[in-house]
C-alpha cells in the first residue's frame, strides 16, 4: 500500500485572498504556506501595503503570541524601532493565528544582494551598527531578549519610513525579568540550541540560558561582518563544536589581535567594544550609553553623520521604475503590424 503524501496545512498563493473579519486582504508578495511565515498583503480598496505574519494554530511554538506581546509592550512605551501592531487574531477556516503590521522594505541581506556587494561602506556599516544597537537597547528596555540577532532580523520601512530601521523576528524572544518584582528570571540548567548558528553566542553553543549579553555578543559578530564579510573565521565551518572554538578565540585578547592584524577594515574603536562584551556576565546590566559612545566616536573620527544618505537610498524606487519601463516596452520578438 502506497503511503499518502501529507497535504500542506495551509496554502494561499500570491494573488489569493484572505477574509479577516469584514475585510478582504489580497496577497501581494509571497504566499501563506506551511506552519509559520509572512507575506505582504493589501486590504481591498486601499493602497497601503501591510505585512501579514502567521502560524498554524497547532504549532507547538507560539511565536505569534510572543511577537504580539513584544509589539504591544513596545507601543505602550513608544519604542521607535519596532513596527506598529495593527491587527491580530485567528482565521478559523485556515486554522491560523496571525498579526498584521506596517509593511517592511528591504532587510540588511536584501540590501547587500540588491547592491551586489559583500559588505557596506564603512559609513553605512557604522551607522547600521548604531541603529541596530539602538533597536536592541529598546527591546531590552521592555524586558525582552531577542535570542536570534542576525542581519535578516533588521529591515527598513517603506515609503515615508524607508530610512527607518526596524528590529523584527521576535518569534524566539523571551522575557528576562519578572513582571511583578522586576527581578531577573532564574537561569535554566540546560536550554536547547535556538537561533542562527553563525551569529549565536558561545552560551547558546554550551546550551546555557541566554541573557542580554548574548544578544549583544551576536550583535558584535553581525557588525564585524557588516564591515568585513571575511571577519568571522567560522563563516564556512559546519561543525558546531568547531564554530564554538573559533568564537572563543574571537572573544579573547589573542583573537582581537588576530582580527586587527588580518582585517584592516575593522575600526580601532571595535577593540574596546569587544573587550567590554567579553566582560559581561549573565546578570550584567549592559552599559548601553558606553557602547553608543564608542560607536559615535568611530563615526565622528571618520566624519560620518547619522543624517548622511544611505548608499542604497532610491534603490526601491529605481527598481519600481525599471519594472514599469519593462512592462511598457514591447518584447523585441513581438511583430509590429505594418501600416
List keywords for this structure.
single chain, 339 residues, alpha+beta, Phosphorylase Kinase, domain 1, Transferase(Phosphotransferase), domain 1, 2 domains, 6-stranded antiparallel beta sheet, 3-stranded antiparallel beta sheet, globular, CK1_Ser-Thr_kinase, Prot_kinase_dom, Protein kinase domain-containing protein, ATP binding, Kinase-like_dom_sf
What does this structure look like?
The structure is a single chain. With 339 residues, this protein is α+β, with helices and mostly antiparallel strands. The protein has two domains: 11-102, Phosphorylase Kinase, domain 1, CATH 3.30.200; 105-301, Orthogonal Bundle (Transferase(Phosphotransferase), domain 1). It is 36% helix and 18% strand. It has a six-stranded antiparallel sheet with strand order 2-3-5-6-8-7, covered by helices on one side. A three-stranded antiparallel sheet has the order 9-11-12. Strands 1-4 form a two-stranded antiparallel sheet. Helix 3 (122-141) runs antiparallel to helix 9 (288-301). It is globular, with a radius of gyration of 22 Å. The chain starts with 10 loop residues before the first strand and ends in an 11-residue tail after the last helix. Residues 1-5 and 330-339 have low confidence and may be disordered.
